[in-house]
Amino acid sequence: MTNGVHTIVEFGDNDKWFVIAEKMINGNKYSYLIRVNDTEDDFIDEFRVVRSYFKGKDEYMNVVNGDELKQIMPILVPEVKKLMGKSDELKKILNLDIKN
Amino acid sequence: MNLEQRIEKLERALKDNQESLKKYERVSKKNKDDKSLDLTIKMLKTTIYKIRGELSILKKMEDLENKYQNREPLSFHFVDFDMADDILLPAGDINYNNAYLQQRRLLELELNHFNKQAIKGIDFDSSNYENVYDQAKNDILSMKIDTNFKNNEMVNENINEKEEAQGLHFKKDDLGNNVKSDMEVNGSHFKKVQAVSDNDYNPYVGGRHFKPNQSDYTFIEFEKDGYGYIVGNFTSDFLNNNHEQLNISLLNDDLKGVKLINNVSFGLNDIEGLDGVQINVTRDGDIQVIGNVENLKYHNVDNKKSEEQSKEDKDISELETISDEEVSNEKDDSGLDILPADFVPVSDDEVLNEKDDSGLDILPADFMPVSDGNVNESINDKVPNINEDSNDKSLSNGAVPMNEVPVGPIKRKEAKPSLIEKFKNLKTYQKVLIVAGAIAIVGAGVFVVGPQILNGINHLLNPDNTNTINHVVSTVNDTMANTQNAGIDYSSIGQGQTVFTNAYDAANNVNGTISNEWFSNNPLDVFNTATHSYMGLSPEQLNDPSFMAQLAKDPNNAILFGNSMADPSGFVGLDDVVNTVTKVR
Questions:
Q1: Could you tell me if residue B369 is inside a domain?
Q2: How, if at all, do strands B216-224 and B193-195 pair?
Q3: Are B164 and A68 in contact (CB < 8 Å)?
Q4: What's the domain range around B461?
Q5: Are A67 and B423 in contact (CB < 8 Å)?
Q6: A6 to chain B: which residues are within 8 Å by CB?
Q7: pLDDT digit string, tens, across residues B38-67
Q8: Which residues 223-282 in chain B show a CB within 8 A of chain A?
Q9: What are the start-end ranges of the H helices in B70-214?
Q10: Is the pTM of this model over 0.80?
Q11: Paired sense of beta strands B193-195 and B257-261, if any
């Protein structure tokens, strides 16, 4: 059974991402990725949602954008729904001054 | 009639109906007092969304067949004790055929249900119909699988390695690797087409238009030293057979020959036999010509769109009642596409914009729109610097940044345990940051539809079901109270009520009609006409009286009812609904 959560996906040199979430939605496999550094021991603040497609044994991933992204995001990352529409809270989070 | 023929027939029917609808809508707009066409227009819209609904299911069937033929992984709904999830089974898995059967049966059931055919002998008219349908669906989804196999044991693994590496456009020619020899071509302008690229076979470079794909192409053409060059991900066969549709200008010039450069890879590519010119492929899929060339021209072709556009143009010239001013660029919105979140309704003065302003525009369940060029900034960090001297007027000719960054197959491996620990031990605010990152990707806009609305095979994929295996992003102080005791009784909404075809009419209480027996009183979502967007509410929220009462205070909210987003019934102003349905279960 395929479960790619918590694996590292490599697109190329120094282009590595950690799978936070993965879900089958409408017959397609989507993954939510956060970037990691080249030595794969720390996170970089970049995020990406990809959709997989297959040719035989190989898996390819395309970045998801636009309306498709808006459709699947609430399913892929349910917490997102709760933060939607709460722009103040969101602003606070995104401008977080990391002290704690 | 096989699947392909059926799809073809329906697509033709859809086009015909859409064109008819456009014509009638145009005429109707001109004569606003004349209501005689209203019924025809309404019926056309109904027909259209019936066709689209069936088409979407049929296309899923076709897609399933193709995946099965190509031995690609198939999705399987797996029930294990009290957990349910969708998993992907590779071709060698012992349950691969079961996955195919499950998906196939689900789709057939969907089709029957959609067409209101009898299910297990129970007719559509029967009050038991929906129950039978649900039960049938559950039976299929609970299909047992063979779990008596070792992990990773592959059975019947007989994929032909060569075949799987080839995309549509990269069938190896009889003449050898990458079509190197001269070829006679159809069409008078082609003298010779030969591929000159020596690069190793690299099928997935350069963005979505470089995927072997019959409908979309990005390619460039230029001339140099008396030869024409075409840079694109085609085989020479494809080019020879389709050069007319591709609108290649250089064919009109007097040239010694035409050379096809395919198989370009990321970064700078030299061209054999051509000094001083390189092809650069960026990570976003832009192709650029570096160096001095003549008559450089970019092509960004979306074949489906351009077909429809030219068809529309033809029809426009045939109509006599429409003046030239009103013949404008019409998007194919024939009444039933979900409005994008930033949609702005058309005022009377803006007739030329011809956007369909009915809030009842719904995307079919499997609609996957390709966004138009919003490249995620964070990805766009590896574009090499362009040679300053280059004759690069190309970029102003509309090379559109690609959305996808296909870079060949991904490599997957286990993460270091320390990294996983690090992830798990992220402080709460950091986890929230991750979620906020997700929102930042999407942008501040509201999501288009709520998750329960995405229909199709996997509609059981309930995002609030915390039992799913892949529910990894930790919940951040989930305080959403889930009151099970109170609910809203929507049964009084329905036949005989005043309902509206779009949210704006509903909010303004104009142009209402009396609902008929097909009007479903199942609430789907709330649309706000001030933000022009759906709220993406969950079923719990829609059934929460205090929550909905709050929403109802905003007169701009209209609630959408229907069986699903693919089969909507109509809108009612939310304040009206809440006033009517204050009964609590």
A1: no
A2: unpaired
A3: no
A4: 445-585
A5: no
A6: 414-415, 420, 423, 472
A7: 878 888 888 888 888 889 889 989 988 988
A8: none
A9: 96-114, 129-141, 161-164
A10: no
A11: parallel
